[in-house]
Automatic annotation (TrEMBL):
Biological role stated in the UniProt entry: Plays a role in vesicle-mediated protein trafficking to lysosomal compartments including the endocytic membrane transport and autophagic pathways. Believed to act as a core component of the putative HOPS and CORVET endosomal tethering complexes.
Any one GO MF annotation of this record: actin binding
Domain Vps16 C-terminal: 517-835
Name recorded for this polypeptide: Vacuolar protein sorting-associated protein 16 homolog
Subunit note: Core component of at least two putative endosomal tethering complexes, the homotypic fusion and vacuole protein sorting (HOPS) complex and the class C core vacuole/endosome tethering (CORVET) complex. Their common core is composed of the class C Vps proteins VPS11, VPS16, VPS18 and VPS33A, which in HOPS further associates with VPS39 and VPS41 and in CORVET with VPS8 and TGFBRAP1. Interacts with RAB5C. Interacts with STX17, MON1B. Associates with adapter protein complex 3 (AP-3) and clathrin:AP-3 complexes.
Record InterPro entries: VPS16 (IPR016534), Vps16_C (IPR006925), Vps16_C_sf (IPR038132), Vps16_N (IPR006926)
Residue ranges of every copy of the Vps16 N-terminal domain listed in the record: 4-420
Organism: Propithecus coquereli (Coquerel's sifaka)
GO biological process, one term: endosomal transport
Compartments it resides in: Late endosome membrane; Lysosome membrane
Length: 839
């Protein structure tokens, strides 16, 4: 125990801080850290170094080199810097390196030195140049804040959705502030800066002077300021050697410490953890590191070489040319178990387990003592929690063995927490390995989540390890293995030294039909890398045509896209390709393409019928489809032409087309329509009224209604209207006119070809029984009964039916007998039926 706590340093009475080595750095640095621009990503992220020759007069002609290392010092990328002078480096939350240049341009690089994109911080920054810059993180993403040569601030809270905000001017600011930082309050980014003894807070609307509560008197300048990892706390280093610590809102003071050093520190960062007992600030000078908090004494370390501080969620990483260390507050569970003379249940359980391994009876004594106090469950939980905060695997195993030993004496202890901790530690130990170089703590891992950790392994192209973790944790394929394989495939298509055929085969062999993997996404990446043929080969494995077609169109492989769309049977998809082809190809090539695809041609014709009639005509002409062309001209004659001459001309064109199609019936019908149109126009000119666009029957009817019977008969003869049809037309028209006299003359003009029952029916329809009876007597014997019933003469209808001895007619008359008035008639019919049956 004593040996284990040798590196514990007390800060006040309530907390201990310890510093342990993460890695022995084996990087071959050619420069001191002080001569480089340095940026280290949080959560055990990578380190970027750019030697800064722009501050050295003699070396201005030497091009600097941008080096990117893992946290363990393993080189990830190295590239010669060919752009302008860089003012600041920083990592985004997605582990993209942001390089802020003096001209306000921000260049974005990937983890392996691949250039991603660039953006500008605005014309004002370009004109006034950049004096200083900060990369900061908010809940919206990663932001950039710029101090220009005009001593104005410009910032963007999210570089992924760039919206520049020019901050208000600070009154009387003639030189650069002594120090400044970004604060995030109420979901809004602010700038806090120091000008002499004054502090100013800039938001989007105003510049406000602020005063830290309880600040020691005599301050003439602020030399350094630091905001905590969660943006909740703020530390200020004054020229009097005092460090003021309080809330970031500057409304509450936590403490103040006199470090008795007035020289400005190189770095100052917060060192705290969630539910911290003693929040502390770490201050670094050239060869001294000091940890201060709400205690009269501080913790001091000697720095043997140039070091750089990286604030983390639960501590501070410190790296130099030779080592990478982690400084943090000892977690409560570890403190309870390992502090000297501890009688905590976890400490006793750890001792019991060690004695058990020695086969000593003291194990039983320790165990009984814990059980008598009823603290065995608490002891197991303490050991599990402490194991999570340990960095060395041997100590993790020791604590987990103790927890497992204690669990054996509990009846209902849920195993979930123990199993989960074993899994988490196995994952953490794997990623902490020197060759991986992601020194996450347990608290950081839980905050980061397993999905983000997998994303970071994928970024480092550590696909096998990521897949092993997914399989070990039994993550759903869509969230785990499938997603990682898709990323691997996207990386694979970038390997231009391998042939398209080999890459496509390797990807298909590895992925197969893995659920959640989209071949179209991989093909899109291949196309983005300039490998069109590879993209087409990959699309062959994509089962969803809806994903294939858009990418094929983007690649200008429209004909292949059309074939795929037709194979899918999705008409909407076919229409999409057709419209794209129509805009891409000239008219002749487009039509030739359609001729080779009958289904597409048919769909396009349907589209043209509603949207593009002229195009439809061109299609029929190209195919020599005279039948459809004739039909088209007929529709066009009525839809587009208002003048009679134009309509007749269109119909003549249609008739010619029908003759070419050898459809004589349609041609003759079209010619008859042309004659009718001309006749209707003449009738309008001679008689007035509306004749145009009436049918032949309606034209005859209109003439009869107008009293032009001879004209109507002539028209019937000209168009060979059958007599029966003409009599019906004339009968209906005269009845509508109620010209009963003319109707009677018409009925006597010659023998009716339709008989006289229609006369009875029409008269009754006009409610004229008197006229109907005139024609009922003239109706032939076979329809006599029906005519008499229509005029209401039931008795006479019965006599005729009895005379005919027709059972159907008798039944029909009987059905019309109603009430007492027709009782005698009904009896008469029944007697006639009875007599007929006797015979």
């Amino acid at each position: 125990m004593d040996c284990y706590t040798a590196n514990w340093n007390p800060l006040g009475d309530s907390a201990f801080y310890r510093k342990y080595e993460l890695y022995s750095m084996d990087w071959d640095l050619k420069e001191e850290l002080r001569d480089c621009l340095v940026a280290a990503a949080p959560y055990g992220g990578p380190i970027a170094l750019l030697r800064n020759p722009w501050r050295k007069e003699k070396a201005a002609s030497v091009r600097p080199v941008l080096d990117i290392y893992s946290a363990s010092g393993v080189p990830l990328a190295s590239l010669l810097w060919k752009s302008g002078p860089v003012v600041s480096l920083g990592w985004s939350a997605e582990e993209e390196l942001l390089c802020v240049q003096e001209d306000g341009a921000v260049l974005v690089y990937g983890l392996h030195g691949d250039f991603r994109r660039h953006f500008s911080m605005g014309n004002e920054v370009l004109q006034n140049r950049v004096l200083d810059a900060r990369i900061f993180h908010t809940e919206f993403g990663s932001g950039v804040a710029i101090l220009t040569g005009a001593h104005r601030f410009t910032l963007s809270a999210n570089v992924g959705d760039l919206k520049l905000r020019r901050m208000p001017e600070v009154p009387g600011l003639q030189s650069a502030p002594s120090c400044w930082t970004t604060l995030c309050q109420d979901r809004v980014a602010h700038i806090l800066l120091a000008v002499g003894p004054d502090l100013y807070l800039l938001d989007h609307a105003a510049c406000s002077a602020v005063i830290p509560p309880g600040l020691a008197p005599g301050v003439s300048s602020f030399l350094q300021m630091a905001v905590s990892f969660t943006y909740r706390h703020l530390a200020l280093f004054t020229d009097t050697g005092y460090i003021w610590m309080g809330t970031a809102s500057l409304k509450e003071k936590l403490c103040e410490f006199n470090c008795n050093i007035r020289a400005p520190p190189k770095q100052m960062v917060w060192c705290s953890r969630p539910r911290s007992k003693e929040r502390a600030v770490v201050v670094a000078w050239e060869r001294r590191l000091m940890v201060v908090g709400d205690a009269p004494e501080s913790i001091q370390f000697v720095l043997d070489e140039d070091s750089y501080l990286v604030p983390e969620l639960d501590g501070v990483r410190i790296f130099s040319r030779s080592t990478h260390e982690f400084l943090h507050e000892v977690p409560a569970a570890s403190e309870e178990i390992f502090k000297i003379a501890s009688m905590a249940p976890g400490a006793l359980l750890l001792e019991a387990q060690k004695e058990y391994e020695k086969e000593s009876q003291k194990a039983d004594e320790y165990l009984r003592e814990i059980q008598e106090l009823g603290q065995l469950t608490q002891a197991v939980q303490q050991c599990i929690e402490a194991a999570g905060h340990e960095h060395q695997p041997e100590m993790q195993k020791s604590l987990l063995r103790a927890a497992s030993f204690g669990k054996c004496f509990l009846d209902r202890f849920p195993p979930d927490s123990f199993v989960r901790m074993c899994q988490d530690l196995r994952v953490l130990n794997a990623v902490r390995d020197y060759h991986i170089g992601i020194p996450l703590t347990y608290s950081q891992y839980k905050q980061l989540t397993i999905q983000v950790l997998l994303d970071r392994l994928v970024l480092r192209r550590l696909y096998p390890l990521a897949i092993q973790i997914c399989e070990y944790l039994r993550l759903p394929e869509v969230q785990g293995v499938s997603r990682i394989l898709a990323h691997w495939a996207c990386y694979k298509v970038q390997q231009k030294d391998v042939s398209d055929e080999d890459v496509a085969r390797a990807i298909n062999q590895k992925l197969g039909d893995t659920p959640g993997v989209s071949y179209s996404d991989i093909a899109a990446r291949a196309y983005g890398c300039g490998r069109t043929e590879l993209a087409i080969k990959l699309l062959e494995y994509e089962p969803r045509s809806g994903e294939q077609v858009p990418l094929l169109l983007k690649m200008k492989r429209s004909k292949l896209a059309l074939s795929k769309a037709i194979e899918s049977g999705d008409t909407d998809l076919v229409f999409t390709v057709l419209l794209h082809l129509k805009n891409e190809l000239n008219r002749g090539d487009f039509f030739m393409t359609l001729r080779n695809q009958p289904m597409a041609l048919s769909l396009y014709r349907q589209f043209c019928k509603h949207q593009e009639l002229e195009t439809l005509k061109d299609l029929y002409n190209q195919d020599d489809n005279h039948q459809e062309l004739g039909s088209f001209h007929i529709r066009a004659s009525y839809a587009a032409e208002e003048r009679i001459e134009g309509r007749v001309a269109a119909l003549q064109t249609a008739a010619d087309a029908f003759y070419k199609a050898k459809n004589e019936f349609a041609a003759k019908a079209t010619e008859d329509q042309m004659r009718l149109l001309r006749l209707q126009r003449r009738l309008e000119d001679e008689l007035g009224g509306q004749f145009l666009d009436l049918s032949l029957h309606d034209t005859v009817t209109t003439l009869i209604l107008g009293g032009h019977n001879k004209r109507a008969e002539q028209l019937a003869r000209d168009f060979r209207i059958p007599d029966k049809r003409l009599w019906w037309l004339k009968l209906t028209a005269l009845a509508d006119l109620e010209d009963w006299e003319e109707l009677e003359k018409f009925s006597k003009s010659k023998k009716s070809p339709i008989g006289y029952l229609p006369f009875v029916e029409i008269c009754m329809k006009q409610h004229n029984k008197y006229e109907a009876k005139k024609y009922a007597s003239r109706v032939g014997p076979e329809q006599k009964v029906k005519a008499l019933l229509l005029v209401g003469d039931v008795a006479q209808a019965a006599d005729v039916a009895i005379e005919h001895r027709n059972e159907a007619e008798l039944s029909l008359v009987l059905s019309h007998c109603t009430g007492a008035t027709d009782g005698a008639t009904a009896d008469k019919i029944q007697r006639a039926r009875a007599q007929a049956q006797k015979k």
